[in-house]
Design brief:
With about 500 residues, the protein is mostly helical. It has 3 domains: about 50-105, no CATH class; about 120-305, no CATH class; about 315-505, no CATH class. It is about 70% helix and about 0% strand. The chain is built from 20 helices and 2 strands. The chain has a two-stranded antiparallel ribbon with strand order 1-2. The longest helix is centred in the C-terminal third of the chain and has 33 residues, at about 385-420. The protein starts with about 40 loop residues before the first helix and ends in a 7-residue tail after the last helix. The relative contact order is 0.09.
Length: about 500
């Protein structure tokens, strides 16, 4: 989800250049045996029309033309003037010559090229797997709940949860920027450089996030959990960027099974910790194996290339903003009640657990819809006759994709609420806040794919800052989310509509 979608996937490379077609040369007939001198009466016969020979030479160009002016433009670009048209072909000008060529040669409109029939094909099963690997790590919190001191509270959260939240924010922001930089290398067909970037950046990001958790402080078990989560997020970034989602799914299998057992029966804390460590070791080991394979197997490029690091700043800010908005949606009610009452024991059960599961599970669909939007927009570009028609079509496609995504999020939340033990159903305000958050994130990802990274980062960061400030001052979190995410969704829609309605954005 972090990398920009390529404008045309699987391009042949920069070696493709535009080739200008020129007027085919007149064919020379092979010299045959000397012909006898024609009789005087044979010399009186009129010669064949020279236009027939020109039509034969320009057959492909004339057959593909959709209007005589296209042929006339070609003739003039090749240097054929009106005087030459009159002298060589007996026509008053090049336009008359083009019209006769257009009538003489049968039309042969080329069908749609298979190369560009759907340049944005996406494997739906791969998107399903990616949705699972986004959601399954949440089961690790069930296994690690014993590592947090539930008897001590900070901001209404168990002691150590604040440190974990800070580490999560740092990891999301850092890994978002790291993934974007790695995708930039992959977009230049430099897989080895991308692997080196990940090999250096992933451990560094885990170290920075762990240090941030240590600075905030908390129980030793919670700090170790934060460090393990930071390592996992770094390894997951490596596997996702390199397209190894199935390896990550394999690494998450022990924690997923262990969480299911914990829900069914009581499991000793030592066993829980061992299961978490097994998943962590698998994820880090598979990521290291893949990086080693890419570095050793890739050839070192002869031409050195540097990518300016300043281009990763908006993606770092975007990751921080997305993390803050998501954490407020998940923990906002608990923090609000702690700020109001000074204790978390009065907190009521909230439906944020199923809502967060629905939101994370929907990320796979969100990624598929990004590809689907690009495919349908390219199809609209090829079939629209005016710029206004294209703008209306892309606007309808945008609203359709957004409607499908939000409807699916609502359906997933309803299913998760039924399966979650004792979870209350979402009310209308809570559901609206969650849908506004999901819509804002999807629109931001879409605009990021088109290169509007600074706009999306600043809008999401402003919304996150406003919600955080209001939450710490005692404002109701639902009101904050409806206001902050609603304003962000409105601004992102106002940008996406006109900008993505331009044909130049989809070429």
């Amino acid at each position: 989800m972090s990398g920009p979608l390529r404008l045309v996937p699987d391009e042949g490379g920069s070696e493709r250049t535009m080739q200008l077609r020129t007027l085919p040369l007149k064919r020379r007939r092979p010299a045959g045996p000397a012909q006898p001198e024609p009789e005087p009466e044979e010399q009186l016969d009129l010669s064949a029309d020279p236009l027939d020979e020109l039509a034969e030479r320009l057959h492909d160009i004339c057959a593909d033309a959709v209007h005589p002016y296209e042929i006339a433009a070609f003739l003039e670009s090749d240097g054929l003037s009106d005087e030459q048209a009159a002298l060589l072909y007996g026509r008053p000008d090049s336009f008359t010559l083009a019209e006769e060529l257009f009538e003489k040669v049968e039309r042969r409109y080329p069908g749609p090229s298979s190369e560009f029939a759907n340049p944005w094909r996406a494997d739906p099963w791969r998107c399903v797997v990616r949705g699972l690997v986004f959601a399954l790590p949440g089961l690790g919190y069930l296994l690690g709940a014993n590592l947090f001191a539930a008897t001590r509270m900070r901001f209404g959260l168990p002691s150590g949860m604040l440190a974990l939240s800070v580490a999560t924010l740092v990891s999301w922001g850092f890994n978002q920027a790291l993934a974007h930089r790695s995708y930039r290398w992959l977009g230049r067909l430099r897989r080895r450089e991308a692997a080196i970037c990940l090999a250096v950046g992933a451990p560094l990001g885990a170290l920075v996030a762990s240090a941030a958790a240590y600075v905030v402080g908390g129980p030793l078990g919670a700090l170790w959990f934060a460090a393990g989560q930071s390592l996992y997020l770094g390894a997951a970034t490596v596997l996702l960027v390199l397209g190894r989602e199935k390896f990550l799914l394999l690494a998450l299998a022990p924690a997923s099974v262990g969480a299911g057992v914990v829900l069914a029966t009581d499991v000793p804390p030592v066993v829980r910790t061992v299961v978490l460590l097994v998943s962590l070791v698998l994820a880090v080991g598979l990521a290291a194996r893949e990086l080693l394979f890419c570095v050793r197997g890739g050839e070192k490029e002869s031409v050195a290339m540097r990518l300016p690091i300043r281009q990763e700043i908006p993606h770092l800010l975007f990751g921080l903003a997305c993390g803050a908005l998501t954490l407020i949606a998940g923990l906002g009610e608990t923090i609000h009640q702690a700020v109001q009452t000074g204790a978390a024991h009065d907190a009521k059960a909230t439906p944020t657990g199923p809502a967060m599961i629905a939101l994370t599970l929907s990320l796979g669909l969100a990624e598929w819809l990004l590809f689907r939007y690009r495919a349908m927009a390219v199809a609209a570009l090829r079939t629209s006759h005016t710029s206004g028609q294209f703008t209306r079509r892309t606007g309808g496609i945008l609203l359709g994709c957004l409607f499908i995504y939000l409807t699916t999020v609502a359906a997933l939340d309803a299913a998760a609420t039924v399966l979650w033990p004792g979870a209350p159903a979402l009310g209308v305000p809570q559901l609206g806040a969650m849908l506004l958050l999901g819509g804002s994130l999807w629109l931001a990802l879409l605009l990021n794919a088109f290169g509007f990274s600074w706009s999306t980062a600043l809008i999401c960061l402003a919304a996150a800052g406003a919600e955080s400030t209001g939450l710490l001052t005692g404002v109701d979190p639902i009101v904050l989310q409806l206001t902050g995410c609603g304003a962000a969704a409105l601004l992102l829609t106002a940008i996406a509509g006109p900008v993505l309605g331009r044909t130049t954005q989809h070429r």
